[in-house]
Write a structure and sequence with these properties.
Structural class: alpha+beta
CATH class of the largest domain: Mainly Beta
Shape: globular
CATH superfamily of the largest domain: Galactose-binding domain-like
Number of helices: 2
CATH architecture of the largest domain: Sandwich
Low-confidence stretches: 34-42
Order of helices and strands: HEEEEEEEEEEHEE
Distance between the termini: 93 Å
Radius of gyration: 26 Å
CATH topology of the largest domain: Jelly Rolls
Length: 202
């Protein structure tokens, strides 16, 4: 009777099996790494879906600019706590319902400025207004609001905000749609971080 060798199989070809298993391991490692990086990105983000906004994209030559960015917020009740997180290069003044809530000056690498504004919010329609500006005409404004009982980043800067060069917009609201630069991380601001315990608002 003629002896025949068994056909080649995955097990009978050690080299092929090794590379097959190696390829599976590399694919699994890449998937795990991507998941971890996505999680790390979420951890780096302290402003949720907030986008960098500004008054205009057209800056033909360096010149000082200032404007007001506004957004109306409707609340079912006055919150026990409300923390506004802001990064504005180069400066900002936060107003809530026509009352000054705080201010700050920031450069790339600085932390977010935090303002506690619960005492200025009420049930119904509330107007958040942020004066912002820079000496060169170019800058970025990032805003996010944490509300007790509602969660983190409930209100945030995006294309729905209105902007206006008039100071009157603090009470009347902006007339023009804000220009959106994009979402963090974005040059030159990266991922704006929360301030450390030893850091105070500018």
């Amino acid at each position: 009777m003629e002896n025949r060798s068994p056909p080649d199989t995955l097990v009978s070809r050690p080299a092929f099996a090794f590379f097959y298993v190696l390829a599976l391991a590399i694919t699994a490692a890449a998937a795990i790494r991507a998941t971890l990086e996505a999680h790390a990105d979420r951890e780096l983000s302290r402003t949720g879906d907030a986008e960098w906004i500004w008054y205009t994209r057209e800056v033909p030559e360096p010149a000082p600019i200032s404007f007001v960015a506004t957004r109306n917020v409707v609340l079912d009740r006055a919150p026990a706590r409300a923390t506004a997180k802001i990064f504005a290069e180069e400066w900002h003044v936060l107003w809530v319902n026509g009352r000054k809530a705080g201010s700050g000056r920031q450069r790339p690498g600085d932390p977010l400025v935090l303002h506690e504004i619960a005492g200025l919010l009420s049930r119904g329609v509330n107007r958040i207004a942020i004066e912002a500006g820079s000496d060169t005409g170019v800058g970025g404004l990032l805003f996010s609001l944490d509300l007790a009982d509602s969660g983190r980043d409930v209100v945030y800067s995006d294309g729905r905000w209105r902007v206006d060069p008039s100071h009157d917009a603090i009470r009347s609201g902006g007339r023009y749609r804000a220009q959106v630069w994009g979402s963090p991380p974005m040059y030159p601001w990266g991922w704006p971080r929360l301030p450390r315990p030893n850091e105070v608002n500018p």
